[in-house]
Amino acid sequence: MDALKDRDPAHIGAYTLLARLGAGGMGQVYLARSPGGRLVAIKVIRDEITDHPEALARFRREVETVRAVRSAYTANLIDASLDAAPYWLATEYVSGPTLGKAVGERGALPGESARRLFAALAEALASVHGYGVTHRDLKPQNVILSPRGPLLIDFGIARGAADTALTQTGLAPGTPGYTAPEVLTSNQVGAAADVFALGATLAYAATGRPPFGSGPTHAVSYRVVHEDIDVEGVVPELAALIEECVAKDPAERPGLDAVIARCAVSSALADDPFYGRLSSDVAAVPQDLGAAVAAGLVPPGHGAPRPPDYPPTAGPGYVPTAVPAYVPTLAPSAPTAAPQRRRIWRTPWIVALAVAVVVGTGTAVALRTLQNGQEGEGGSQARGGGEPASPSASSSAATQKAPEYIVNNQNIRAFWTLSPDPYEAAEGRGECKQVGAVSPPMELQYSATDADGADGGNVRERAKVSFRFKYADLASQRPDPYYVAVGVKPPHDIDPDTGQPYKVESKGIGYTSKPLDIFTHWKDGGYVDLVYPDDFQEHTAAGRKYDAIPVANDPGDWTVVFYHVKGSPTDYESIGCDGFRVGSS
């Protein structure tokens, strides 16, 4: 739980804000108090994306889903405003940490606690499925450990059972490591995909480790499709049930009723001593504005008294939501794990999967993601506990003004190669091997495609390079700039005077773009776009400058490297790489 910022409103609709609970890909989540004294969690969609039809459709879908699913295992809808900005929804406030936070701080659950959690989450999913809804993003960060049992949250990409459209054109829904293979490869979304996510979530709870390892999105997704889940150290019976839930073939996964029966619990999870300690591990929650001010969660004067006509119409866009009658469901039940041994993942450099996005002309683009941890979207309408809403601050060097260019004075060992698989090669997919890269502070997504046509990954004259930090709302919470320059490396070293390649492998940083602050160049949550060769030059240590060569001068596999630029033209480090193929003319 964090203090309100000066830019945060004092009221949303009829509700008085008391604190920040967290942030997600679509907006900010607040703790608030109703006029009658009830605590609620309010998710407010970000102003930057209110003009995006897809974002608004997703938000409205979340409201309709939460309204429809009146389960004992979800945070129930209280109110919503959908007609005009600001768009928001209010759910009951649920006290408790997320499973991700609890395991991250306390470690893996003991065997019996894990078994009980398995049964309780399976029952929660069965309740949701009973309303004809698939969650599609079950993960540790979307499970709140409330005192009465686990609750499922964040239905932003949930869909009705008959609706299988993507959440964004060409992007598979869900979170890497918890998204089922059939969703990644062919977007087959159904109840079996939720069972896969359930198994992966329990693997994390029982081991304390990401179920398919960590690293770039494409690497994790490759393991999901081709490798086994990490259940080392889990007792055999529980490990076997987890493995069945994450079977590659959805038809081989057990039903939720079978999962509950296999867990064979005899007491409620809420009565489990270890679970009780986890669910109570939360900061004190202010019950009213006075308590929030006293706790330092509300700035002085932020909650000034309402005018005499309070409560008014509650501001633009306020439309009280009619909530259906509560439908009771079954009570929670129960799970086993054991000592842990670190698993060493096999494939260090992995061909990217078909987790692709269709851009403008229709070119398929594989998105790679570098990330610290597996936190994913994080924010939820019912976030409890004290999970951080933003990443840690960057180094002080990042606050300095970036130079106009970076100097080619480093030997960068980064090489992209097109996949040998004909199908993947036709889509421009390959792998990038890179030595010495560091992880950026947030999830960085990037792509490289033909700028002028839909010819798979084959660039003919110009390449389009796009990049962004995944979560737009984090930009507003991060005061320091984060400068990124892009380097485009031909397959070979280039004679600067003739622009023709030598017969030696390229070792420099490539032709580079001007460093840009990734936050200020954000375009409504979209990507920063650059075009090669138009936006690229080479700057040597001797002070000379050369224009980028045409791609046709050196056919083959080109590498795109992303550099974090600090305080000077020579102070930078690589944070990721991608590439594209240039065919022979």
Descriptive account of the structure:
By secondary structure, this protein is α+β, with helices and mostly antiparallel strands. Among the domains are: 99-278, Transferase(Phosphotransferase), domain 1; 390-582, no CATH class. It is 20% helix and 23% strand. The protein has twelve helices and 27 strands. α5 runs antiparallel to α7 (236-245).
List keywords for this structure.
single chain; 585 residues; alpha+beta; Transferase(Phosphotransferase), domain 1; six-stranded antiparallel sheet; five-stranded antiparallel sheet; 20% helix
Itemize the secondary structure elements and their pairings.
Layout: E1 11-12, E2 15-23, E3 27-33, E4 39-45, H1 53-68, E5 77-81, E6 88-92, H2 99-106, H3 111-129, E7 133-134, E8 143-146, E9 149-152, E10 159-160, H4 181-186, H5 191-207, H6 217-226, H7 236-245, H8 256-263, H9 273-279, H10 289-294, E11 356-359, E12 363-366, E13 368-370, E14 414-418, H11 422-426, E15 430-434, E16 444-450, E17 463-469, H12 472-476, E18 483-489, E19 492-494, E20 501-505, E21 511-512, E22 516-517, E23 528-532, E24 537-539, E25 545-547, E26 556-565, E27 572-582
Antiparallel strand pairs: 1-2, 2-3, 3-4, 4-6, 5-6, 7-10, 8-9, 11-12, 13-16, 14-15, 16-17, 17-23, 18-21, 18-22, 18-26, 19-20, 24-25, 26-27
Helix pairs in contact: 3-5, 3-8, 5-7
